[in-house]
Specification:
Helix content: 55-70%
Number of strands: 0
Shape: globular
Strand content: under 5%
Structural class: mainly alpha
Number of helices: 23
CATH topology of the largest domain: Fic-like fold
Order of helices and strands: HHHHHHHHHHHHHHHHHHHHHHH
Distance between the termini: 94 Å
């Protein structure tokens, strides 16, 4: 007897659900695909097909199926949640947040609130995340995933004592292996925070680096594990750097006295031309109070000065970590929501990226391994600067300001060998050619060659900028 389309659809759906429950996702995709062909107007078939495709690793086609389901019935909360999950995996965080928000608008469940809260954390909206975790726990007090997330988000809110209290309370609960691992790792990172903080306070208040250095010397071995996966990638960068043919762009004349300010204002950048720089410099001289991007840029001035004074001393891993923490403390001092000089204590992702960085409990060990095993094998110069830039990008040791530290160290490597440091315009820098080149490096097995012309362009631009600055110096004939 021939089955009707409805009967065939029902049978295919049942077979797909059975295969899915047995984790036979390829078979589930096949059965759900048959169902959507039998009755293409039923949203449930597209929903199940989308979820099965995602579980089978086909994110893009899974997203298309889920969007078909939503097009037929936008009130399917599970479809909105699934779209959020896929967009998160694709690194499209704004789209993920929007999908989770639609899901929450349809039904405020503990899981929908938790997923939205976790996505908002990537967008640095920790205060909103905390409220959503608390709401989820009001609905379901035993929701252990939300309990763990509520504890860890306290670190992003700078509530370190509260974090310690909540993490301690989780130790006796029946957590899943992944949740228990997260609690243990976060507790380790928090313990390192309390060990290091007194030394950082003295650095910022008195400029004395010795207490910080002593605290770093006393970090126990259990806090010095290394992320070998990331380190293997950095070794690929080092192997490529040793084979590069590098341009030479020497400093023709000495850099201007206000070079630290010039470099700082080009970090984001806030200026691109000599005239813009002169206006910004004049505004700062009148005593305007910097905030936001300007504050972050001005904070780089003492970083550049401190790095220049330190000199080429980063071969020693403890000295390198001390200076890196010091420079970060200067770069983020008085910036709300950050912990100056502290390595990250929760996992951080880069916006619009799915690339995993080193987990917080592995940062210290990984940074020390980089400086002792890789950095110290190179002489000063562009090659070492490029490897260091990529190492900091991939380890991502701090919650924020990693990119600014990358550029500052790269320029010191160039200066230490008498080469012109680089300035990056909006077209050249982060979010543009420099970021695209770094992604190319990762996609091409660590081949650094795509970075070299970008750095060289930055050096040439800096040379031209300094020449024009000298030619148009106030008081010269024909200048303002």
């Amino acid at each position: 007897m021939n089955m009707t389309s409805s009967q065939s659809w029902q049978r295919s759906m049942q077979q797909g659900q059975q295969a899915f429950q047995n984790r036979k996702f390829k078979a589930a995709v096949r059965f759900f695909d048959i169902a959507t062909k039998n009755i293409p107007t039923r949203a449930e078939g597209w929903l199940n097909l989308g979820i099965a495709r995602v579980e089978n690793g086909a994110l893009e086609s899974g997203l298309l199926a889920l969007e078909n389901a939503i097009g037929m019935n936008p009130k399917i909360m599970l479809a909105q949640m699934a779209v959020g999950d896929v967009q998160r995996q694709l690194g499209n965080w704004e789209a993920a947040i929007a999908a989770y928000q639609r899901a929450v608008a349809l039904q405020r469940t503990p899981m929908s609130l938790n997923q939205l809260a976790s996505a908002l954390r990537v967008a640095r909206r920790a205060t909103e995340s905390e409220l959503l975790y608390k709401e989820a726990l009001q609905m379901e007090p035993g929701f252990s995933l939300a309990q763990v997330n509520l504890a860890t988000v306290q670190l992003e809110l700078q509530n370190f004592e509260e974090a310690r209290k909540l993490l301690s309370g989780l130790a006796s609960l029946p957590l899943s292996p992944l949740e228990r691992n997260e609690v243990a790792r976060t507790s380790l990172a928090l313990a390192l925070y309390f060990r290091i903080q007194p030394g950082l306070d003295i650095v910022l208040q008195q400029g004395d680096l010795e207490p910080l250095h002593q605290a770093l010397c006393e970090v126990p071995d259990r806090m010095l594990e290394t992320d070998q996966r990331i380190m293997d990638g950095i070794r690929q960068y080092a192997n490529s750097a040793s084979k590069l043919s590098l341009p030479v762009e020497p400093i023709a004349t000495s850099l201007p006295d206000d070079w630290p300010l010039i470099e700082g204002l080009f970090m984001i950048p806030l200026v691109e031309t000599v005239s813009e720089y002169r206006k910004m410099s004049s505004d700062l001289a009148t005593g305007i109070r910097p905030a936001g991007d300007l504050m972050e840029s001005i904070n780089m001035v003492p970083v550049v000065r401190a790095a220049r004074m330190a000199g080429d001393v980063l071969q020693d891993p403890l000295i390198a970590e001390m200076h890196l923490r010091h420079w970060h403390a200067l770069a983020t001092n008085d910036i709300p929501g950050l912990a100056p000089g502290q390595f990250k204590m929760t996992r951080n992702l880069v916006h619009k990226s799915t690339k995993e960085r080193v987990h917080p409990h592995l940062v210290t060990g990984s940074m020390r391994s980089f400086f002792s095993e890789i950095y110290s094998d190179f002489p000063p110069g562009m090659a070492r600067g490029l490897v260091t830039m990529m190492a900091i990008a991939d380890i991502h040791p701090f919650e924020d300001a990693n990119g600014r530290l990358e550029l500052s160290i790269l320029n010191r490597e160039l200066e230490w060998t008498g080469q012109m440091p680089a300035l990056f315009t909006r077209e050249l820098g982060f979010g543009a050619q420099l970021s695209h080149a770094k992604n190319e490096v990762r996609q091409n097995n660590g081949d650094l060659s795509s970075l070299v012309p970008i750095i060289h362009k930055g050096q040439q631009y800096a040379r031209e900028f300094c020449a024009e600055l000298a030619q148009t110096k106030p008081g010269k004939p024909g200048t303002a």
